[in-house]
Every structure is written in C-alpha cells, then in structure tokens.
C-alpha cells in the first residue's frame, strides 16, 4: 500500500459492524474475505474511534498523511517526539488516554495502562519490552505488541550483502588507493579478489533480516547456516542450535551477527568465539553493539586471525573518533545506517496503517511479538 496524497484509507478502515454476517448464523462476520471470530476481544468489534498515540517525529508530509489516513480514529502526539527509534522515551501523560501506541512508549508506563490495547514499535528490535513481566501483563489483558521488523529486513539485508560483495571484490582497498597514491595495482587486486560462490556463511539471530539475506545470497549457491535458540523446522536453510556453534564456527567464511540486545546476548561474541573462527573469516555486526566484546574483536583483527570486520553497530554509539576500532586493520564502520533508506519514514507509517487495518478487522497482525 503506497502512501500518497491523503486520504487513502477512507474505504479500508470501516467499522466492523458494517460487515455482513456470515451465512449460517454462527455469530461470525466476514470482512474482505477474512473470517472474524466472535471470541476475539470486544474492542475488535467496536464502532468507536480509537485514540492513537505516537511519539515518533516524522517529516511534515509523512505526519500529515498519517493524520489523514488514520481517520476516523483520533491521532494524538506525545509532548516530546523523537526521530530516532532507538531513543528511550519519557513517561507521557497523553499515553494514558490512548487505545493504541505507535512509536516507542515508556515500557513501565505502558504496562500500567489497562486501556492500552496494542503497541506498535517503530523499530525492528524491542529490547526495552523483551521482559517476562511486560509480556505477561500484556497477555493477561489481551493486549498486543508488534514491531516494524518488516520495514527493516530488506535494507539491513542489502546492507550486509553490499559489504560482503565489497570485501570479495576488494572495493575498500581500491577506494583507499584512489584517495591515496592512485597506483595501478592490477595484479595484486585481481589475485586477492574472490567469489562468494560455495563459501559458508553462519547467520546468528535467524529472523526476518537473516531470512531476507539468505534470499539475496541464494544465487551465489553459498552454504548458508542459521543459528537460533529453537529450530522450528520450516526455515529455508539449515539451522543449528546454540549447542552446535562451537562445531560450526571453524567452518564459516562469513560470521554474520544479527542478534538482538538482551541479557542472554550481551558479550556473546567474546574471545573464545573469535579464536574458534576460521583463519581468514570475516565478521559482520548488523545486530547490536552490546553483543560483541569489542576488545576481543580488536585483538582478533590486530593479530590477523580475522580477514576483516564490518560493523554497523558499536558500543557506544556514536563511536568516539579516537576509538581504536576506527583504525583497526580491515575494520569498516557505518553509523548504524543499515536500516536506513530514502523511504524509511513513509514505510514505517505504511506498515503501521496496514496493521491498523488488520487490528480493526480482527485479523492477525504483522510482526507480532505478543
């Protein structure tokens, strides 16, 4: 659904009561081909307008389109808005009157508000909400939590692919030469280049980004292996569990970190894991900076056991200009920009509007966590 001149959803978000009853008198209603169960919470069937709170700071044209396209529902803004979806949000009095939160609400406040029926985050990660007490309270009152994972899988996967290709084709070295003595290193550059074909990539944190990256890497006929806590059995590539990591780390040409930040992933990539990696492997971090022991990474780069590292996330952020990773051998850093693209803000709103359509229709929500 493209976000264009508002309003675009005047016929997409009707009151559920306007939908015809399904033949057979079973108490269910049909809407756009979807059967809506009478066992759903009562607010799915209400004709009342919802109050939607947001603390996201969108560009003026996106903000105007959001306001128009949530109609007939009411949109209210937090006293303090933030363009970054990684910034911690303060408690906001306006949230107390909301049925839906779109953005990054304070987790403690959101837990206390029994009227808050659905929280849709403007981020793929949900570290502040990844708590047993938070999830238990939401489930107990029939509330839901969704993320914007679907907005970020493509840009993050393409960002990772770009760096893999850059390493393989020696683009950083060629750029350095162009900015330096402009020598014509013809033989050296050709002989150092390699193909991804047939190489092994180990992907930690096998979620939406990893799945999309596997799709992009499929034409190279690589040996792609995912790592996740629980193997579901429906993954598109081979997936191993944490217990098998020590066996597979020495086999990987590319170690791709997509892990989220939580208590179980802090410092996950530490000294012993870097030492188990295959000599000449390349390490990528598109997950979170806290998941890597950066001193151990620096040591691996300096002793040459890793051929290189690409970091889109670090600890801290911004990374200080005098931090040794900036000058570490074959270490390349981007400023947490993997998820960015020119339509990011538009896509965040479109993703929310699609889930809003599903929410008022009693359909399954996209990127649902709780």
Explain what this protein looks like in three dimensions.
- The longest helix has 20 residues, at 149-168.
- This protein is an alpha/beta fold.
- It is built from 11 helices and 14 strands.
- The model is unreliable at 4-46 (pLDDT under 50).
- The strands form 3 sheets. A 7-stranded parallel beta sheet has the order 10-9-8-11-12-13-14, sandwiched between helices.
- The protein has 2 domains: 16-147 and 343-361, NAD(P)-binding Rossmann-like Domain (Rossmann fold), CATH 3.40.50; 152-333, Rossmann fold, CATH 3.40.50.
- The radius of gyration is 23 Å and the shape is elongated.
- It has helices at residues 60-69, 107-112, 132-140, 149-168, 171-179, 186-192, 208-217, 245-248, 271-276, 294-303, 344-361, and strands spanning 29-31, 34-36, 51-56, 74-82, 100-103, 118-121, 144-146, 200-204, 223-227, 238-240, 254-257, 281-285, 306-311, 331-333.
- Helix 4 (149-168) packs across helix 7.
């Amino acid at each position: 659904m493209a976000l264009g001149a508002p309003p675009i959803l005047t016929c997409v978000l009707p009151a559920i009561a306007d939908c015809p009853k399904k033949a057979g008198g079973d108490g269910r209603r049909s809407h756009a081909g979807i059967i809506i169960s009478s066992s759903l919470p009562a607010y799915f069937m209400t004709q009342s307008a919802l109050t939607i709170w947001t603390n996201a700071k969108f560009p003026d044209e996106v903000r105007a389109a959001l306001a128009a396209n949530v109609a007939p529902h009411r949109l209210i803004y937090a006293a303090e808005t933030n363009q970054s979806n990684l910034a911690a949000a303060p408690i906001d009095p306006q949230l107390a009157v909301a049925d839906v939160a779109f953005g990054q609400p304070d987790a403690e406040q959101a837990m206390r508000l029994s009227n808050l029926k659905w929280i849709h985050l403007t981020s793929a990660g949900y570290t502040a909400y990844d708590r047993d007490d938070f999830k238990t309270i939401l489930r107990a009152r029939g509330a839901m939590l969704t993320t914007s994972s679907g907005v970020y899988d493509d840009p993050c996967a393409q960002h990772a692919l770009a760096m893999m290709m850059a390493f393989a084709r020696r683009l950083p070295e060629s750029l350095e030469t162009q900015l330096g003595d402009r020598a014509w290193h013809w033989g050296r550059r050709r002989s150092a280049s390699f193909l991804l074909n047939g190489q092994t990539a180990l992907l930690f944190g096998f979620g939406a980004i990893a799945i999309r990256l596997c799709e992009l890497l499929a034409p190279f006929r690589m040996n792609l292996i995912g790592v996740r806590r629980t193997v579901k059995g429906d993954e598109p590539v081979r997936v191993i569990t944490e217990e098998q990591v020590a066996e597979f780390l020495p086999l990987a040409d590319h170690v791709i970190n997509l892990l989220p930040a939580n208590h179980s992933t802090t410092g996950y990539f530490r000294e012993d894991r870097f030492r188990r990696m295959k000599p000449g492997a390349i390490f990528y971090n598109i997950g979170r900076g806290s998941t890597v022991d950066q001193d151990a990474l620096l040591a691996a780069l300096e002793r040459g056991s890793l051929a290189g590292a690409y970091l889109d996330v670090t600890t801290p952020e911004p990374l200080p200009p005098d931090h040794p990773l900036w000058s570490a051998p074959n270490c390349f850093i981007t400023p947490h920009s993997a998820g960015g693209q020119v339509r990011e803000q538009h896509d965040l709103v479109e993703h929310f509007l699609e889930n809003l359509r599903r929410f008022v229709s009693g359909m399954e929500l996209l990127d649902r966590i709780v």
